[in-house]
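=== RUN LOG ===
request id: a7f3
mode: sequence -> structure
chains: 1
length: 359
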Amino acid sequence: MGSDIPPQPEALDLAARFPHLTAICRELAEGAVFATRLDVATIADGRLYWGTFGKHAARATSNDLFELHCLTKPIVAWTLLEVANRHGVDPLEPIGTILGPSRFDDAVTIAGICNHTSRLALPSGLDWIATDPSRRPALADLRQEEGGSWYSEVGAWVAADATISTLERRPAAEVVAEVIGRCDADAMIGTPVPDDRNVVVPVAGLPDAAVPMLHVEHPTFQARLGVPFGGFGSVVGYVRFLRQIARAIRDESTALEVGRTLIESIAKPRAVSHDDTWRRPAGFRYGMVDGTTPGEAGDGTCLTMFAGIASGAGLVDLHRDRQVAFASNGASFDADDHRFVRRSVLGAFLRDTDVAATT
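=== RESULT ===
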């Protein structure tokens, strides 16, 4: 539907086209440096590539699902932008005009939610996952940090969920699913995984121990994470969504129904936030980090997003037609682990495509 690239990835050409990317993925997965399986999908030169690495590669398919965690954020952010566009909502207006009077200040806007400048900082992602849905804080219970500009983890996405549901008068997960379908993104956010789909289970501790994480293994936990963190998808589907983001920002034909005026207005509030969960300063746009991975400083060249716990990441180059996404079963709560994997994989992809552009 929303894709302009071949429906099937070209697995056999990955090593020839991306030698550095192939080498680092093989090292990370087959050497059990961080994970025992790592999948990568890229779009470059109008072609879709996919590769899988690790001891289970022979049985792997490009349709296998990984837990997305924070990789859901760009999908939810662009759904929120679509809804705002459809209902004529100014992304710079406080969401109190939509949800009714609140105790939040004017920083809690659609733009503030997508750019992580709303200062809605609590609860943490791990607290949210570990808490039964009946005891999770409602929108009215959230609070803002005083001063500065804070990375707005779960709180912002609770506000996004409420805004989408209120404007559309239906569950946010249903609206998100429509956007995903239009973009051929092959993901489930806030909805259970179908029984016939294979989920790559993250491992805890040393990769060779292969101890499954309960919230992925048990169907009750799969269903209860909700829109902020409940996401499963294939890397091929995810990179397709990243391509739609790139086309929308470059004002090209895209499956995302977001007006040009709205896209330009939301790019303005780009203040650097403090990512308290992963201990780093970062500027955000459209639910993604404004940065040039493998470095962390933002200069408007690329947008990236990464997932903690079960490591994965995606990158959108805003100036060149290239996108990449990877996901693994390597589970860790150490920010340095994820930073190393992210920089290694995305850095190798950029190196390969930079070399190809000069030859």
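=== NOTES ===
Residues 335-357 form the longest helix (23 residues).
The chain is about 35% helix and 20% strand.
=== END ===
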